[in-house]
Specification:
The protein is α/β, with parallel strands linked by helices. It has helices at about 55-70, 100-105, 115, 165-175, 195-210, 215-230, 245-260, 275-280, 285-290, 290-300, 310-320, 330, 355-370, 390-405; strands at about 35-40, 55, 80, 120-125, 135-140, 150-155, 180-185, 235-245, 265-270, 340-345, 375-380. About 35% of the residues lie in helices and about 15% in strands. The longest helix has 15 residues, at about 390-405.
């Protein structure tokens, strides 16, 4: 079994005081390890290649953190408050989803009375000021007579769903000895109040430019979540994995880019080339998934139809750098040397496979240079569009076991 050496996490200039202090909290994080990855960038017109440039991973992470902090009024202490189980999970879609064959296929230990042996925790973390700064967290683990440090895995849901939707995965991983963690992403689950909460937040972000509900705000939450998880006495802070589906896959990708405490990474149908999609007129699939904000921008920009100019302006407004500095060709390679498995559908219109040529090529080189080529893999399932399959769930499970289980 491969166990990576300790990888220091990025230094985040935030206050980390808990309302309920947890023993053995490391108040001074180690300095981040700089890893240099070479890749080609383009001129502003995206038609001519520049010379090869060296980008320092710590510098890029620092730039991303500056963007995240730019739309936060002030730092708040990280606090933990107990919560009650959610009796009626809230979904922003009709009809309400009931069953996921893919998640139910996740390997689990053969424990006949599993539900009786599960320990469930519901809590809120305060990640910033304001209503959306209350992060709902659901944690499942096996009750242990001889508790010790265990690996943990964070699971992230797709658009319009919530943390409770992920319970089949949480139970399966908990049965195998993991501490399984799920959150409600921004404007979802307990952080939503109606069927259009997420849609309205995206439109508001375009209009006001004061929030980043698409990917970035939840990435901030996941940095704070890592603060909390690494404080817990029952979690091995060097063995925290992260995975997610669709929007959750993007959250996993960006959280791992921003914070090296996520030591094993499996984004599912989430990684794509945003700049590539604009340049190659393949942006429609992703745009259609959150179309309201693009329609609002189209009207404001006086366009008859959504076009590449509208798409680029929306990304620059609601997620600055998403289609430039923080796009996949630059952020995926610096996840190296941590184990990274990218799972996509070969026919996915939201994450076109051709758009991954550059990030995959550059990531492969980065892992080669780090002397761990086997820590990186892309699996594109033939004939599959934007869909998480049972095969993907099982591949993710095997990958996480390979690197997190001792």
């Amino acid at each position: 079994m491969t166990i990576l050496p300790h990888i220091s996490h990025v230094q985040v200039p935030i206050t980390r005081t808990c309302a309920h202090p947890i023993p053995n909290f490391r108040t001074t994080p180690p300095k981040p390890t700089a890893y240099k990855c070479r890749f080609q960038t383009r001129h502003s017109d995206h038609r001519q290649d520049r010379k090869m440039e060296a980008v320092d991973s710590a510098d890029l992470r620092s730039q991303f953190l500056q963007v995240l902090r730019s739309r936060r009024s002030s730092d708040v202490p990280l606090s933990v408050k107990p919560a009650k189980p959610v009796a009626e999970p809230f979904y922003q879609e009709i009809p309400r989803p009931r069953f996921s064959k893919a998640m139910e296929s996740c390997p689990r230990a053969n424990i006949t009375n599993l539900k009786d042996l599960l320990h469930e925790e519901n809590l809120y973390l305060t990640t910033e000021a304001g209503e959306q700064g209350r992060l709902p967290v659901l944690i499942l683990s096996l009750k242990e007579n001889n508790p010790g440090k265990r690996p943990a895995v964070v699971f992230l849901h797709s658009t319009n769903k919530c943390k409770e939707w992920l319970r089949p995965l949480l139970e399966a991983y908990a049965s195998r000895g993991y501490i399984a963690v799920a959150i409600d992403s921004r404007y979802h689950g307990e952080r939503a109040s109606n069927l259009t909460t997420y849609r309205d937040a995206l439109v508001s972000s375009w209009e006001k430019g004061d929030t980043m509900p698409f990917i970035f705000d939840t990435a901030w939450d996941l940095i704070k979540l890592a603060d909390y998880l690494t404080q817990r006495e029952d979690i091995d802070s060097d063995r925290i994995g992260i995975t997610g589906e669709s929007l959750g896959g993007m959250h996993a990708w960006f959280a791992a880019f921003a914070d090296t405490r996520y030591s094993v990474v499996v984004p599912i149908i989430g990684v794509q080339g945003f700049r590539w999609a604009i340049d190659n007129d393949k942006w429609q699939g992703r745009v259609d998934s959150i179309k309201a904000v693009f329609e609002e921008a189209r009207i404001e920009l006086g366009k008859r139809a959504i076009d590449k100019e509208v798409v680029e302006k929306v990304w620059d407004r609601i997620a600055p750098g998403l289609a430039s500095s923080f796009d996949s060709p630059y952020t995926v390679p610096i996840i190296s040397p941590r184990p990274l498995l990218i799972l996509n559908g070969a026919e996915d219109p939201r994450c076109p496979l051709a758009g991954l040529d550059a990030p995959v090529s550059r990531a492969s080189k980065a892992y080669e240079e780090a002397n761990c080529p086997d820590n990186f893999k892309l699996i594109a399932e033939p004939g599959i569009g934007h869909q998480m399959t049972s095969s993907m769930v099982k591949e993710a499970s095997h990958w996480i076991d390979r690197f997190l289980k001792k």
